[in-house]
Amino acid sequence: MRGKALGLWAAAIGALALAFGLPLFVETFFLVELTVYVVMAILALSLALVWGSAGILNFGQSAFFGLGGYAYTIAVMNMGDSTVPILIGIAVPAVFAVVTGYFLFYGRVSDIYLGTITLCVSLIFFNLINSSGAEYRIGIAPLGGNNGIPGVPPLNVPGNPERPLDFDEMYMLSMVVLVLVYLGLHWLLATRFGRVAVAIRENELRAELLGYDARLVKLAMFTIGAGIAGLSGVLFAAWGSFIGPTMFSIFFTAQIIIWIMVGGLGTLAGAVAGAVLIQWLTTWLGETKIADTNIVLGAIFVVFVLLVPRGIQPTIARWLAR
Amino acid sequence: MSEPILRTVDLHRRFGGVAAVDGVNFAVEEGELRCIIGPNGAGKSTFFKMLCGLIHPSAGRILFRGEDIAGDERHRIARRGIAIKTQVPSVFDGLAVRENIRLSAARVQAAGVVDSAVTDVLARIGMVEHAHRLVGQLAHGQRQWVEIGMLLAAEPALVLLDEPTAGMTKDEVVRTAALIREMNTRHAVIVVEHDMQFIRMIARTVTVFHQGRILVEDSMDAILKNAQVRDVYLGKRSDAHA
Q: Measured between beta carbons, which residues in chain B are less than 8 angstroms from residue A207?
């Protein structure tokens, strides 16, 4: 058992060393592709927290992702320097989550309606942005309707817009954010607040009868998850120097759920693995055109729900524990 | 006389046209152990659910140490020091026994003493050797004890137990009775039960509910001899034969 734990630590450190050392060996093109996997893994962690740990069935995590991306884009186009816009990209979805979450949790909306409402919120944004034509501007930023906004400025060294991050630096920054978010959530779930959130997922009534305010805890988790999703939206927009309404689409929101299902609901490492694997598969299918991406993803979802309902990470962990 | 720990004043709860609780005036003193009995549908469970905020009263007042708590959020009522064991065990099935108890202790204890408080409670409910098992894997009676352990760890002023021996074996019932007597040395306790054998083991004063009201309130011996009470229970049986 001890040997296995040491082995896991060694594997984790090796993987990290490899991930951070990668820019030394590989071509920039590959690194750019890898960056988006990292960004998606951060987004996956946000839903792993909200759905996996806190048990909030949120089908609209993409709304926060898109809000973060759009908030960053509009702010950075107007301000030039990306330092404050990054914070705006986190704050806008978080504030939006506080407002919507207040009605959802303090109104004691049940799980299934919560799923429906959050999905609808995402689709409302999708349609709203989609129908905002070229004439709609915020400051000097054109919303661009269904064409999205091209030419999103990249992230820059804080306070120095003349010095944008290059591809290597963007990759490294995304990796650092991923590791920090992962460790931060790991810590959060070990605190009393995190344990109570898990307890509420297990049995909300009992948690309340012990004196915990389930509404407040769920609202806090929902908001933290929204902030992290917003941050991944910021990185996504800056990475591709493009943002479009598809960030809010049903395809995107479904994809996040599939990442979590495949990786393992209730785990953090599984969510990262699920995001990277599925994202890689999606890209590969798109390039080779072997089969329709949507059909394959749907099939994977069905297979996992029926045959591997725990997901990859818990299944492997069980296998190792034998 | 000092203010009772719990007092209800003309408490009502209607579901549609049915009055489940129909004007209950009830009082329990600090440190008391009280049993509530009554046939099915007498309103015992509804009454209990109102005490801990699971259901809000249609009318009337619930005074806890003189303060009206009717209509309060349930986590606020819990924080005042009322702990309930629900009829169906309400526990965290996916978490270990120790974590279940710990969640309760962590709300009331300072961080430094939580662990020792948890260990103490595990010993009191006799679950030390099961501390790391998931509650969902335990037998029914053991899950009941985990729930009772959570109540103990919360160090409440008043404990409400709704059918604590449901589904227990005879040995388990005897152990639970001992546990409740021990619990009563520190907390006021109200027990709702069907099992008369069990009531006999623990009861001092018994309140009999019937059709949403208090029929009679007396010592266990007097209740057993009471003709009205016998009619309520046996009357049902003669109805069934008719």
A: 103
